[in-house]
Description:
By secondary structure, the chain is of the alpha+beta class.
Amino acid sequence: MSLEAIHGPGILFVRSRISPSSKSILDEPTFLNWYDEEHIPEVTSTSSIKNGFRYVDINKTSTTGDAQNPKPYLACYPMPDLAFTLRDEFKKINFRSSTLPGSGIIYDLVDMDVSYLGFLGATSRKGGSMLDYTSLVSC
């Protein structure tokens, strides 16, 4: 996706796993505490992201992922304009914490896949309104 395509309403979603190289120093409770107590509150305190939710695969066999689900953690942030992710305010979100082991930098400890789900349009039911849609088109 080109940077020009990152605009309009959508959802920023991040799939993650504890990196195999850091599983001996980062446990799941510490990782989830960082997400719940530090990261999500900071992200949802920005001017453009007011909500966030997090998912944990309760059937995972490992915090580093498995064949069924290589990234067992998911965080989603709906926002009115995905272009916010290109702005300085978003780029200043802290990814270092004294509650994390080692360097304290989350990217040193966790593998993350960041993606965008952008709203492109909707198909309404025959004779219905756009609020009565049958499918959404996204990228």
